[in-house]
């Protein structure tokens, strides 16, 4: 008998296979007194070394199978195992209280996990998950307990788990693991992001799968809709086999558009680009027919290491991306650290609200030499392609002018040394803050382009942390307030003959695309795997028809009204 469950669609695709419950044994820790603290410390250090060795192997495997951006997760895990703020209290507890290493580790780790989980900050909550994943590994070695190894699966299965740690997820072999379902998690969790990279269908946050699904049960996971069917009958299986075949056929049709320009049905061209984190990601952009890179997140160069990257190392990374793009536009965002992204070697004071604090351009303007190094590296790499530079989280025109002055100063110094530099570098800004959107007419006179970062623009406009479940209903991309801000920015730019891109999640949303087309957006930047689907949609849309609906959409009262209206016109047009 069919049993239907539902969760969050985290990774596209449909899979049908038997269930494999990924359950690790409970790690039971008892407090015991010890007589030789030095011997206990050595036992703890041995467990740390074993864990580090395993993580180094997983990191190397991840870099080989995926890319450096995903491998950086395990660089962060390795840093946890070397963090004196975590290890110090553990060793002190062993020495001063004469307790066993397992108890000292668990007590200290639980304190940090509880602290981070209580924060309304996605980055901190992910750090709690990292500490839990890493300490579980060390604890297993101390207890002599074996943890299930997903890489050993050799049958076609769908993984069922309460949650998947990053180290679990990267060990999934898509040849055998056809999909996974978890009780907890969201679209932005590490496991969901890795699933999309592996192209494994996934549904997360399903809440009851561990209590509902047993080993060997046949399960259908629909990563397109977020549906789960347990013990499906033959009719249901046949229906989903047909849906899976249609989805694969659709992907094949999209693939034919790889080398096609993105032109609307009435002849208007827009640019479809991709967001990347490392030079290795460029291959996926080109494979999916990307016409540009709309956002190169340079912070990944700075993460998972113990010091700032050297100037020459940065030149090499930027030049690699520009060369691979072979003259296609490449928008590089200068360092955007802070908020949900931290550097272990950059000791910044803790803030009550880091998303509204000392981050991005604010940090770069204060740490001027670090910023100048990045600007020099970008200038030196510029001769290898079509470089455009943008500054993140600009709130005032003074900030832009200050950053632009540093850029021009470094440019003049290099020219004085007869170092070759591109003559056509454009310099723009991210529009993420409502004040900047409202003042777009002033900014448009001085910048070369705008790129709208909708993820932050939405949460700042609505005063709602999108990762806070209690206010997540306010994360509304289609709210008329957001759409009106987008229109202000586009109109202001076009009045000055400047172009506007968008590099937030909204740019690849099938409801948002018709609206943005009508508003006049010039460049849409999204995850590489979304490009062909978006191109297929835009080819069928008429820009003039979408413009005709713009006034009606902007006069609506609610996000739901907008969504309903766009779905209706998309069917009838």
Can you give a write-up of this model?
The protein is built from 23 helices and 16 strands. The strands form two sheets. An eight-stranded mixed sheet has the order 1-8-7-3-4-5-6-2. An eight-stranded parallel β-barrel has the order 9-10-11-12-13-14-15-16, surrounded by four helices. It has 573 residues and is of the alpha/beta class. Strand 12, helix 15 (397-416) and strand 13 (426-431) form a beta-alpha-beta unit. It has helices spanning 37-65, 68-80, 84-97, 101-117, 122-143, 166-170, 190-198, 209-212, 234-255, 282-287, 299-302, 311-325, 360-366, 368-381, 397-416, 434-438, 440-443, 454-462, 480-495, 512-519, 531-539, 543-554, 559-572, and strands at residues 3-6, 8-11, 14-21, 157-161, 177-182, 202-204, 218-222, 227-230, 271-276, 292-297, 329-333, 386-391, 426-431, 449-452, 499-502, 523-526. It has three domains: 3-23 and 149-253, Glucose Oxidase, domain 1; 37-143, PtsI, HPr-binding domain (Enzyme I, Chain A, domain 2, Orthogonal Bundle), CATH 1.10.274.10; 262-572, TIM Barrel (Alpha-Beta Barrel), CATH 3.20.20.60.
User: Can you name the CATH architecture of the largest domain?
Assistant: Alpha-Beta Barrel
Mean pLDDT: 89
Structural class comes to alpha/beta
Low-confidence stretches: none
Principal-axis shape equals: globular
Neighbour order of strands in the largest sheet: 1-8-7-3-4-5-6-2
- The third-level CATH topology of the largest domain is TIM Barrel
Distance between the termini: 41 Å
**Integer count of domains:** 3
**What is the strand content?**
5-15%
CATH H-level superfamily of the largest domain: Phosphoenolpyruvate-binding domains
Give me the count of strands: 16
Biggest sheet overview? 8 strands, mixed
The number of helices is 23
Cα-atom radius of gyration? 25 Å
**Helicity range:** 40-55%
At the first level of CATH, the class of the largest domain is Alpha Beta
